[in-house]
Amino acid sequence: MTAEPGDVETFRAEVRALLEEMADVLDPRQFFHGRGGATRDLYRELGRRGWLSLGWPGEDGAVPATLAHEFALWDELAYARAARPDLAAGIVAKTLVVHGTEYQKARFLPGIALGDVSFALGYSEPEAGSDLRAVRTRAVRDGDVYRVTGEKRWTSDAHHSDYLWLLCRAEGVADGDPHTLLILDLRAPGVDIRPIETIDGHRLNEVFLDDVVVPVTDRVGAEGQAWRLIREALAVERHLMVLPGRVRRDLESLVDWAREHDFLDDPLLRDRIEQLTVDVQAVEVLAAEALARSLDGADCTAEAARVKLVGSRATQEIARAALELGYLEATRRDDDLAFLWRESMMETLAGGSSEIMRGVLARAEFGLGGR
Predict the structure, then answer these.
(1) Angle formed by the axes of helices 354-366 and 301-324, to 10°?
(2) 285 and 333 share a domain?
(3) 145 pairs with which residues across the strands?
């Protein structure tokens, strides 16, 4: 990293300079196209510069001095629509640093830090979306390996990834919670990845697992520890749940579209843009609050849930503004606003639905709810 800790604005300028250098190889909508191809090439460049590991905690879980730099990195990339945060360098690496075995750290962390090793998250299933405790994928111990059978659904980037960060049920756990984390090789026999196409041209996946062999050495933590590890991983990633740079860029797209079509004289549209500007500013303030809590090593569950609620709603309101005011020009399939409208439909679902976020706030802020 070229910026010293604390010099975040200088670091942001370095990130923007890199994006200018790579402008010819990045699709203008690369942010929405998944984590393979040109996005993986960008991750490798970030890794070469030492930027993918900016947010990694100490082995004791201590907050790194460069956590604000990590936020700045992904915020700039989101504004440029260049890439979403790398799952391997985020949830996976941050868990392995603290809870991985020495074998796992040596095997996975160097490649992750360089952007060469990729992971998808294997959480959701056909009967376990928001309620992950209902997962049915099972892992049966057979000597030094597990045999894994089940199905994962809505799995982003499985077709681009080397490994699956797998939530499953370890069969035969005598007492307590059977939920366990495994690292499953997506190239192993018995893995079948099938596409789920979305309305915005993105691809999700179904991942079928038929007696897939996973070495016991690729279990993360002990059997039954999955929930604790997942909660800890989310706690150190919450400041990246919604990146305000992406929301501001969407608003700028709306303003540019209105200017291009000479619609800024419409008082209704101007009023709507002013309202949306306030919404974007709210996202920026809430994201800053979540980051500040993270920098202090404090729990930012409630702050992150607020960012997710306000940010996902803002992206949808921005994308729908021209359509709701009756501008047919915004319905053309190749139009930027039409694309954002299709893409925004998933924003209140992906990464935790709005209903789940409201439940989080109800528990964290008001002590409501049984779980």
Answers:
(1) 140
(2) yes
(3) 142, 215
Q: What is the pLDDT of residue 2?
A: 45
**Whether residue 182 is found in the same domain as residue 244:** no
Write down the pTM of the prediction: 0.92
Same domain, 202 and 288: no
Distances (CA, A) of 155 to 196, 205, 266: 9, 5, 42
Q: What does 111-170 look like in DSSP terms, one character per residue?
A: HHHTT---EEEE--BTTBSS-GGG---EEEEETTEEEEEEEEES-TTGGG-SEEEEEEEE
Retrieve residue 157's tokens.
Answer: 């980037």
Please give the pLDDT value at position 322.
Answer: 86
The answer on 92 and 66 residing in a single domain is yes
Give 151's strand partners.
Answer: 208
Question: What's the first-to-final CA gap in the chain, in angstroms?
Answer: 42
**pLDDT recorded at residue 3:** 42
Residue 14 has pLDDT above 90, yes or no: yes
**Res 189 pLDDT > 60:** yes
DSSP alpha helices (H): ranges in 296-331? 301-324
- Shared domain for 199 and 178, answered yes or no, is yes
Give residues with Cβ within 8 angstroms of 103, minimum separation 6.
Answer: 217
pLDDT tens digits for 143-181? 999 999 999 999 999 999 999 999 999 998 767 789 999
Is residue 214 in some structural domain?
yes
141 shares a domain with 97: no
pLDDT of residue 4: 52
177 CB contacts (<8 Å, ≥6 apart)? Answer: 224, 226, 227
Query: Is the separation of the CB atoms in 296 and 276 below 8 Å?
Result: no
For residues 137 and 167, is the Cβ–Cβ distance under 8 A?
yes
Domain that holds residue 278: 237-366
